[in-house]
Structure formats: C-alpha cells, structure tokens
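Researcher: Final request for today, and then I'll write up notes for the group meeting. The sequence and the SMILES for adenosine-5'-diphosphate follow.
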Amino acid sequence: MKTLADLKKIREKAQEDMKLRGGNVRIKISVGMGTSGIAMGAREVMKTFLEEIAARNLSDVLVTQTGEKGLSSMEPVVDLIEEGKPKVTYGNMNPDKVKKVVVEHIVNGRIVSDYVVATGD
Amino acid sequence: MQDISLHLLDIIENSVRAEARNIKVRVINNVQKNRLRIIVEDDGVGMDSHTLEKAQDPFYTSKLQREKKVGLGIPLFKQNAEMVGGTFKMASEPGFGTVLTVDFTLDHIDRMPLGNLKDTLLNVIIGHSDVDYCVHLIYRDKAKEQCFYLDTKAIREELGDIPLTYPDVIEYIDQSLFEGIQNTNMEDV
Ligand SMILES: Nc1ncnc2c1ncn2[C@@H]1O[C@H](COP(=O)(O)OP(=O)(O)O)[C@@H](O)[C@H]1O
Ligand SMILES: [Mg+2]
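Model: Predicted protein-adenosine-5'-diphosphate complex:
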C-alpha cells in the first residue's frame, strides 16, 4: 500500500534533483480537454504524455490540460510551449503520435511537422 | 461519451473553468442499494437559478466565443443517466459553488460502465495541479464497507516545495489511485 510516508523519500530525491537543475520548466504541454476533445480521446493522449515523461524522468516538462481550443475538427489537440520559441500545436493526436512527439520534439528538439496544425504565439 | 469516467472528467473541467480551488469527488458503489452514485462538489463561482436551468438545456452555453453553439457536456450526462432509470441533480449557489449528484442503477442492463476512473482522476489532479482535490471512493455491500481517501492537500504538505507534477509524485498518485480503486471494487463496474 502507498502511504504518505513514501512521499518523504520522493521529496528527498526530488530536492537533490532540483538542486542540480534548478527546478525550471523547460517545456509546457497543454492538452485540450473540452467535451469534444474528451470524446475524441484526449484523456488517453494526456495519460500517454504522463507515462512517457515519468518513464524518462523528464522533471523539467510540465503537463497540463485546458478547455476547448476552438479546433474541434482536429481534436485531440496539444500545445507545446517552450520558452523563447513559437508555440507548436499538434492535432488529431493519439497515444502513438504522443510517443513520437516525446522522443522527437521533447527529447531531441525536432518538431514533428506531420502532426503540426498551427504554430505561433 | 462512452463511459461515466469520461463524463466525470468533463464535469470536473467545468468546475475548473468556474475557478474552483477545491474539488471534492465521491464515487459510491452501493451494492446493497443497487446504486452507483457520483458526487462532484466545487467551490467555484456557482450559477444563479437561470444559468443552472439553462446549463441542463442542450442548447445553451455561457462561453462567449461559442454563443451560437451548444454546451453539451451537462445535457449529455443527464440524458445518459436518465435514459437508464438514473437521476441527475445539480445545485448551485452563486459565489459559493456547485454540487452535482448523479445516480445510476447498478444492475441496469443498459447503464454505461464506470470506465477508467484512475485516468480521469490522475489527469485532473496533475493537469490542474493548482487545484486541490479530495477523492473519496466507497464500496458497500451487506457484509462490508471499504473506503479510499486521497487528499492532495495532505500530499502537498509532505512534499513541501516539490510540486505534484514531479514525475515520481505522478507515479505515486497513479499507484495510490490504482490501489484505492481495487480496494473499493471499482475497476470493473
Ligand atoms: N461547476 C460549475 N460551476 C459554474 N458553472 C457551471 C458549472 N458547470 C457548468 N456550468 C455552467 O453551465 C454551462 C454549460 O456547461 P456544459 O454543458 O458542460 O457546456 P460547456 O462547458 O461546453 O459550456 C457552462 O458554460 C457554465 O456556464
Ligand atoms: Mg462543459
């Protein structure tokens, strides 16, 4: 059983880690979680991001969710926001595409242009 | 929407959009009463009686940019409950918050399944990590009652300045929810 005591160990490890890299958020991922996004599979998209990021221990990547993004014909929609770079919006996402975006874009810094539906601010 | 947990996700998104800081989610699997009950309580901006009524009407949304479109989340959930003999109740107080209570008859043959409760809860806890959640799962039958509690405030207290979104914390919450769902027999409802 998981107990609150387990969090103590996590906290110690995380504090060491934060000391090393300063706790910055390098990339923010925002998954559209409006009604149509949910109906089109946005929950699995978000879950896959969480799994892939945890598996790679990418503690400088933040996964969040927001409401409708007004791109309902391209749901599930995901924004990747990186400091000092234009926002990249990926559309028609699914768990396999998420895995590719994590490896290509988030780890290796190469935008997966096939999945991009919009860029800018 | 194919299952109850997806509706739950949609409903919690409404609470977040209503600027809730605290969201309480209860799922009660009451075999004795043959009832599956979902309660979502938030401390968001709430609704006046007019909006409350309109929110349950399939041709209404308050989102300005979508004025001419329809807000379907609530009407769909209501319909999916009532179609199979369930009930859907929403109460709200402007400035205080909103409570939604949805009941399903457990053994109704056409009831939608509960679905992946774990992923819904993990998504909202991590995806809106500035909101605090109190999750309470309860299983009841003649012989026993089993409970599971998860309170993000208590987790935050243990973590100090480490955020809920730290990878190991995400795994911890995922695993806690997994165990809680198993212990309250909700993995296959
Ligand atoms: N928890 C809540 N607190 C305050 N207002 C809410 C809440 N849930 C729903 N509403 C109101 O009801 C409206 C309809 O909700 P919904 O059916 O989910 O459609 P949508 O979210 O697409 O507008 C919302 O736009 C909002 O004004
Ligand atoms: Mg909604």
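Model: Strands of chain A lie at 27-32, 61-66, 78-82, 88-90, 116-119. Helices of chain A lie at 4-21, 35-39, 42-55, 95-107.
Researcher: Thanks, that's everything.
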